[in-house]
Every structure is written in structure tokens, then in C-alpha cells.
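Quick sanity check, DNA 5'-3' helicase:
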Amino acid sequence: MSNTENQQELYNLDLEQWLIGCMISPLTGYPGIISKVSSVLEENDFYHPCNGFLFKRLKEIDKATNDVYLYHLMLLNTDKDQWKAVSDIDIKSYLASARTNAAPITNSTSIITKVKELSIKRQMLDSLSKSVTKVKDPSTVAETVASDTISSIENLFNDNIATNEYIYDILDNFLNNDDEIQPISSGHSHIDYLLEGGFRNGQLIVLAGRTSMGKSAFAVNLALNACSQNKKVMFFSFEMPRKQVLCRILSNRLGFNSKKLKHKDNKHNLQEQHNAIKRYQIQEKDQIFISDEEVTSLSAFKNKCQTLKNQVGLDIVFIDYLQMISLKSESNNKQYQNKVYQIEEITRALKQIAIELEVPIVVLSQLSRGAEKREDRRPLMSDLRDSGAIEQDADTVMLLYREEYYLKQAEPAVYEKDKHADWAKKMDDARNVVEVIIAKNREGETGKVQLHADLGANKFTDLAQENSWN
């Protein structure tokens, strides 16, 4: 068996390409990332020649600029003859594929370590193969071959001691900077279990559902759960006016139905409500900032978040909802004509903003009517309206489903006693229950979680349940 055949499982071309993509994509790269990777990897640590070549070029480019936005452009200007010497693939196509499959920033450390580990194993195999050749040579002395083999393996690990130091530095950073890595709890233990603690900085979380599933109510619930952890929350409401969001907040905190708070002519328990609101103003310290102003550019959205972060701090952002964001081209001030393209641009920008501001961004999204046509109306990721980019850019996708809503529309006639009795039993089981489906989760497991939903009070609480995750 040849040495090449022995090495066939000691490389991962996908990981290598993902790492190249991570360094050149504005969504995942950042100033200093090439220096960080270079502290562990060298060009010969990449198995595929074109990946090693690109990494060498990136190190050269990095000496000239640390602007992530220029890395891709400068790579495209690589001498064609130099590139053809290592690959027959068109460099533009290769880089486009690398950027599309760019690894999330949260995974870059593990990918760097894995690429290095595979490189070390290949070098070990090469060293051992040479020793086998020497052993078969009658003129060699066994003791000398053994000594040379041990020495070469030891030198291999001595040369790569920086890898271990790099890993220890990361661990020390994690131990000494708890605030940076502590996720924001959703306020629901089973959801936190699936999300491995909650919402993390740099994540884009999509919360989607059909009409009347309780998306806005659940978003307010999550936002207030973050406030209860002394987090500063920015809530963009593009569907409801600011006062309506405030009504939902008060109903959650005070236990009143939000509809009662909206109608001032309702005299029932009015004094009690006023007293409770005063108590809320005195007792509650919710730091939630609400904006219902139209956003027509992503730069304006980012600036508003950045200003809040600079002035008072910012821990998490909520957007209600994605399809209500109507951008104008910043070059000609005209509306985008292609909605799918606009959504694609928005989701990628939101992911980048989450990384740059080091906050999680939770964005609500509509679902298409696809679920309505299925017998089981539980939503799927493919139901995401203007999908594709949403599904790709999101770190986590949560889908809401309320069986109660659909059962109410399918009540049998009372005279159909057996059918009505069966329906009534299902209604009892489904009443005030919302199913949160974790359909995508880069940081943990997928699965389903049931919560008790008091939609009138915009309040969700945990239910005892059996494990329903993968």
C-alpha cells in the first residue's frame, strides 16, 4: 500500500475550504483572523495544494492590509499561471464556493485544531513510513533506526508546541472571561438545554410561525426574560406601534390581558390596573428600548444599535419582523425590486452585525402557506417565507406551532357525538399549549419543547414533558 493510500483518511478538504472561506468572508472574518490562524497553521498543513497556496497568499496580503473586505478581492487578482500550477479549477468559482460554505466564527477554533491534528498525523505517517523502509534495509542497525524514529516523532511534537499553547490560551480566556461566553437564557429550561445554555453573542436566531401562532408574544416574553437577567434589550417593532409593544410588556409583568390595557373606556378594575402600573414603574428595572421607526438601510439599523451599545450597553436585539423591513438601495434610494434578494441581503447583514456588535439577534419571520396544505400542519424550515438565505444564515431556527388554533377551526357538529367527544379531548390536551420546534441549531441539538402559553398576558411558562429532542 502506498503512502498516499495510507493518508486517504488523514485529511478533510471540506474543513480546509471552510477555513479559507472563514478568513475571506466579511460575515465570518475579522481583523487579525489570519494572524490567529497563522499562529497555529502553516501552508504545508493544508493537504490540498490550492488551499495551502491560498493561505500563503492570504498571509502575504495580510501584511499589506487587515481589511477583511479586501481579502477576497486581492485573491481574485492572483497571478493566473501561479494558480494553474496548483489547480485546474477556476479561482473565482473556488473562492465563491469557499465563501458560501464559510464556517461560523464560533467554530473556527475547532476547525483550526482539527486541520492541524490531521497535518501532524500525516507527518507522523510519513516519518514512520521512512522508518519502515530503513528497517527493511539489511545494512541498517535496528537500534539506530529506533532512535531516529523516536527523535523524528519528538521533533514533530516539539515543532507543534504552539498548537497546544494556543489551545491553553483559549481555555484560559474562557475561564477568565465568563461574561463574554455566558449565554443569555431563554427563560425556559428545556429550550436552554437544546441551545446549550441560551442565546450567544454573534448568533442570528430566527423565530418563525404562521399567523396567530404567538410570534410577537413569544418575542416579548424572551425579551423580558433577558431583562430579568439584567440584560439590556433593543426591540425593533416594524408591525406594532411602540404603545402596543408597551401594552404587551405591561400585561406580561402585571398579569393583565393586554386587550384590557388597550381600551381606556373599560372601567372594570381600572383603578387596580393603574395601581399595578405604578408599582411596575417603581419596582421593575427592565432595560428594554423600543423602536417602531421605519428602517430603510442596514447601516441606519446598525448605527442605532451601536449608539445604544456605546451609550448604555446592549446585550440582545429583537426584530419583529423580517419581512416588514423595507430597504432602499443606498446608492439610488430606490426600493429593491426582488424581495428574495432583499431578504438574502438583510439576513447576511444581520448575521454580520451580530458578530461585529457581539450580541445575539433574534429576528421574527413569516412562514409560507405550505404548512396549511399538509395534513400535519407543523411547520418545517422549508416553509420559511423567502427562504434559502434565512435558512443558511441563521444559527438557530425556532418554529412555533399551536394545535389549538387549528382544532378550533375544525370543530365537528355537536350532533356527531363520537367525533365531537374525540375533538373535545384533543382540545383539552392542546389548550394553551405552544410547541417550540428547534428546527436548526448549530450549537446543539434539535427537537421540540412544549410551553404553556397565556397569549392574553403574553406570558409563556415551562411544562413538564418527556424528552422530545434528537
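Posting the structure with no commentary besides this: Residues 1-7, 330-334 have pLDDT under 50 and may be disordered.
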